[in-house]
Amino acid sequence: MRSVSAANIQPRSMEDVIARMQDEKNGIPIRTVKSFLSKIPSVFSGSDIVQWMIKNLNIEDQVEALHLGTLMAAHGYFFPISDHVLTLKDDGTFYRFQTPYFWPSNCWEPENTDYAVYLCKRTMQNKARLELADYEAESLARLQRAFARKWEFIFMQAEAQAKVDKKRDKIERKILDSQERAFWDVHRPVPGCVNTTEVDIKKSSRMKNPHKTRKSVYGPQNDVLTSFQKFTKYCFPLLFQITYWGGQLDRHRLKMSKVAESLLAYTELYVEYDPFITPTDPSNPWITDDTTVWELEASKEPGQQRVKRWAFGINEVLKDQVGREQFLKFLESEFSSENLRFWLAVQEVKKRPIREVPTRVQEIWQEFLASGAPSAINVDSKSYDKTTQNVKDPGRYAFEDAQDHIFKLMKSDSYSRFIRSSAYQELLQAKKKVRSSKP
Amino acid sequence: MRFSINPEMATQEVQPNETLTNLKAESDTLKTKLEDERAKLHDVELHQVAEKVDGLGQFIMKTRRTLKGHGNKVLCMDWCKDKRRIVSSSQDGKVIVWDAFTTNKEHAVTMPCTWVMACAYAPSGCAVACGGLDNKCSVYPLSLDKNENLAAKKKSVAMHTNYLSACSFTNSDMQILTSSGDGTCALWDVESGQLLQSFHGHAADVLCLDLAPSETGNTFVSGGCDKKANVWDMRSGQCIQSFETHESDINSVRYYPSGDAFASGSDDATCRLYDLRADREVAIYSKESIIFGASSVDFSLSGRLLFGGYNDYTINVWDVLKGTRVSILFGHENRVSTLRLSPDGTAFCSGSWDHTLRIWA
């Protein structure tokens, strides 16, 4: 459920969260720290981030805060100033915000040549702390081989950039250098780290062209449409919408209170069958490595819990193979199995390849509905007429109306008799007997 | 439709725009009327009614198996009816059938395309279906002979004009339901490859689908990039109900076990519950700290729990009735892309961009 917090707005994205983190009044306090010989500008600690998140995002515990914070760092919104690996630690480690220029939402797709220029430039900076890490040195070597022919050009670009950088104010340079490094930590992550720039291919084409519209079924894509074309392009969808919504107005709806009670009742009924809530007996194979519960279920002897479930509704009997067999057996004993057999046969037809359908439909017609049929079923005259017509051009749904009618009959008649029958009651008691006879 | 399109009328500059405006107005009026009708019956919230239900205790859900073997992002998985085997597909084109209980790989196929976004196990357990960037859905019969080349027996069933996002067998090995980036869903006869029914109505890519769990029903629900969740009649091809409350792509839809409702997971970082009888959204599962999209959802057997796999690498477990989160599961090292409950509800499986699948119980 949406929790109502002080900020009162559900953040829609990491950028929403960052905006709040950077808020002057309620954000994370940013400061300049004096270290041995120099100043560390514009930083905040990992603990600052964790505390802010717990307080402002309604997060319950540190583990969750660290997880979300690490994700935000991995996406490059803030970064540890002394580490290529982008994680969040709940301690005094210093972090800095990334400049919006480098945010992922700008759809950066930096090329290897850009990375080559960057690494090359780094080697021109003779500060010990800016030395290349091993993986960076390896990347540089690889890039030098790959771009051997145009290396002179890359070198020139690196030189030009280094020149510009040197002219900057010392503090500003520190910040920009760290942000540029963090940018590359996102786009060329340390080996073994997640590359958060990977996208889901289903979404990527739309991300690049947010205004790209789907080819319309209703008309040409061309910008220059004639009046008539424009008319039909926008008109048809509206007409369909109007027809659809007009139809929906007449729909019968249930009140929320009724629906809620129904959902509660269903859940309550099945909670004892839900292994996540009620531990299974015998044990859950995934937890104890003991597959007894699966073996029991595969056997033809249904357990009491399973039999009990058949009484919840006709669907429970029909979807359980053993239930179906017992139901059929009971009806055969009463010489009234034709309804169920018809229903099962029609279900079978719908499962067959389309090629077999016409033959099967004829077979079912002969067995259950034709005059003089050996297993004649009673269908209302309307359904019978419709079915007679359908059978002339048989499709998978030839018996749909008849099947609906028979299902309603079974539900109210055969099924109720089955649940009240001694055969069913015996099955229900069976396991109990076995249990009590155990020493 | 009382309105007829007369080309002569259309060529006059003024008329078309006027008519279009009128149509738009009528459309908007109907929509408002519909929302009013729905709102009239909104006498209480689900979580309010659920106050009388006992709260759930503490859960101990752990990874019980980790399946390693894919060389790239796992995109989809499905369970076999035998409750222990699964099929999974990944970005590198590999489709693997596992006995998740022993973690042994039993079959492997390499598809001729990358990004195999959809896979499904046949009800008989004797075949699997898969597809993705090849715009097709293909069926591979599973041979008992481990040495037999599965790729040789491949059968192309579905053909779309854009990527295949999801596929599912109906209650038979003979029919497959597919959804695609081309904006449509379709039902196919496996043996002949014939299109039995197509479903048009989404205005953008369809990302997911789920068949209703009924023995008698013929419906399924689909979710798309148009933020809509549509319920379809498989027989007629008509959209019989539509829900549009999400604020972004719907990545996953799953029916509540009774078939009267379904849940959805979206890029808007929320999961929602829609009831078909009330014809409206009845719950939203969200938290301030959850800002990444939900990629995949499924219910526990009783429908009391909703498991959601998210793009922030976690799985959140929700109390469906009360609307609160009961657990957050860490473990995956990259996005969770797919999540399904096992057929008997004893476990659920999650697949991730970290190349692994995990079984949780």
Automatic annotation (TrEMBL), chain A:
<dbReference type="GO" id="GO:0008277">
    <property type="term" value="P:regulation of G protein-coupled receptor signaling pathway"/>
</dbReference>
<protein>
    <submittedName>
        <fullName>Regulator of G protein signaling 7</fullName>
    </submittedName>
</protein>
<dbReference type="Pfam" id="PF00615">
    <property type="entry name" value="RGS"/>
</dbReference>
<dbReference type="InterPro" id="IPR044926">
    <property type="entry name" value="RGS_subdomain_2"/>
</dbReference>
<dbReference type="Pfam" id="PF00610">
    <property type="entry name" value="DEP"/>
</dbReference>
<dbReference type="Pfam" id="PF18148">
    <property type="entry name" value="RGS_DHEX"/>
</dbReference>
<dbReference type="InterPro" id="IPR047017">
    <property type="entry name" value="RGS6/7/9/11_DHEX_sf"/>
</dbReference>
<dbReference type="InterPro" id="IPR036388">
    <property type="entry name" value="WH-like_DNA-bd_sf"/>
</dbReference>
<dbReference type="InterPro" id="IPR047016">
    <property type="entry name" value="RGS6/7/9/11"/>
</dbReference>
<dbReference type="GO" id="GO:0007186">
    <property type="term" value="P:G protein-coupled receptor signaling pathway"/>
</dbReference>
<keyword id="KW-0963">Cytoplasm</keyword>
<keyword id="KW-0472">Membrane</keyword>
<dbReference type="GO" id="GO:0035556">
    <property type="term" value="P:intracellular signal transduction"/>
</dbReference>
<keyword id="KW-1003">Cell membrane</keyword>
<dbReference type="InterPro" id="IPR000591">
    <property type="entry name" value="DEP_dom"/>
</dbReference>
<dbReference type="InterPro" id="IPR015898">
    <property type="entry name" value="G-protein_gamma-like_dom"/>
</dbReference>
<dbReference type="InterPro" id="IPR036284">
    <property type="entry name" value="GGL_sf"/>
</dbReference>
<dbReference type="GO" id="GO:0009968">
    <property type="term" value="P:negative regulation of signal transduction"/>
</dbReference>
<dbReference type="GO" id="GO:0005886">
    <property type="term" value="C:plasma membrane"/>
</dbReference>
<dbReference type="InterPro" id="IPR016137">
    <property type="entry name" value="RGS"/>
</dbReference>
<feature type="domain" description="DEP">
    <location>
        <begin position="24"/>
        <end position="99"/>
    </location>
</feature>
<dbReference type="GO" id="GO:0005096">
    <property type="term" value="F:GTPase activator activity"/>
</dbReference>
From TrEMBL, chain B:
<dbReference type="GO" id="GO:0007165">
    <property type="term" value="P:signal transduction"/>
</dbReference>
<feature type="repeat" description="WD">
    <location>
        <begin position="67"/>
        <end position="108"/>
    </location>
</feature>
<dbReference type="Pfam" id="PF25391">
    <property type="entry name" value="WD40_Gbeta"/>
</dbReference>
<dbReference type="InterPro" id="IPR036322">
    <property type="entry name" value="WD40_repeat_dom_sf"/>
</dbReference>
<comment type="similarity">
    <text>Belongs to the WD repeat G protein beta family.</text>
</comment>
<keyword id="KW-0853">WD repeat</keyword>
<dbReference type="InterPro" id="IPR001632">
    <property type="entry name" value="WD40_G-protein_beta-like"/>
</dbReference>
<feature type="repeat" description="WD">
    <location>
        <begin position="329"/>
        <end position="361"/>
    </location>
</feature>
<feature type="repeat" description="WD">
    <location>
        <begin position="199"/>
        <end position="242"/>
    </location>
</feature>
<dbReference type="InterPro" id="IPR016346">
    <property type="entry name" value="G-protein_beta_1-5"/>
</dbReference>
<feature type="repeat" description="WD">
    <location>
        <begin position="157"/>
        <end position="198"/>
    </location>
</feature>
<keyword id="KW-0807">Transducer</keyword>
<dbReference type="InterPro" id="IPR019775">
    <property type="entry name" value="WD40_repeat_CS"/>
</dbReference>
<feature type="repeat" description="WD">
    <location>
        <begin position="296"/>
        <end position="328"/>
    </location>
</feature>
<protein>
    <submittedName>
        <fullName>Guanine nucleotide-binding protein subunit beta-5a</fullName>
    </submittedName>
</protein>
<keyword id="KW-0677">Repeat</keyword>
<dbReference type="InterPro" id="IPR020472">
    <property type="entry name" value="WD40_PAC1"/>
</dbReference>
<feature type="repeat" description="WD">
    <location>
        <begin position="243"/>
        <end position="284"/>
    </location>
</feature>
<dbReference type="InterPro" id="IPR015943">
    <property type="entry name" value="WD40/YVTN_repeat-like_dom_sf"/>
</dbReference>
<comment type="subunit">
    <text>May interact with RGS9; this interaction stabilizes both proteins and increases RGS9 GTPase-activating protein (GAP) activity, hence accelerating the deactivation of D(2) dopamine receptor-mediated signaling.</text>
</comment>
<dbReference type="InterPro" id="IPR001680">
    <property type="entry name" value="WD40_rpt"/>
</dbReference>
